[in-house]
Specification:
single chain, alpha+beta, three-stranded antiparallel beta sheet
Length: 74
């Protein structure tokens, strides 16, 4: 969902998605276009696919320690 914390001035957002089935500590992190994006190309993507379309999904272990080493693994 769109919140002040995940909206950028670039017309895209990063949303925390659902947990992976049978692996509750693994969550999907999704890159999505904002419905109010200023760039024309992003507006066109939104009209074609909706602001709910996930353009990129990364699975992250939310139970791991927040270290530079674990960040580098992404």
């Amino acid at each position: 969902s769109v919140t002040p914390g995940n909206v950028t001035g670039h017309g895209i957002r990063i949303d925390r998605g659902s947990a992976v089935k049978d692996q509750p500590s693994i969550v999907n992190i999704n890159l999505q276009v904002n419905s109010n994006a200023a760039k024309k190309s992003l507006q066109q993507l939104d009209r074609k696919h909706s602001s709910h379309k996930k353009y990129l999904t990364v699975q992250v272990d939310s139970g791991q320690e927040a270290t530079q080493e674990n960040l580098d693994k992404l």
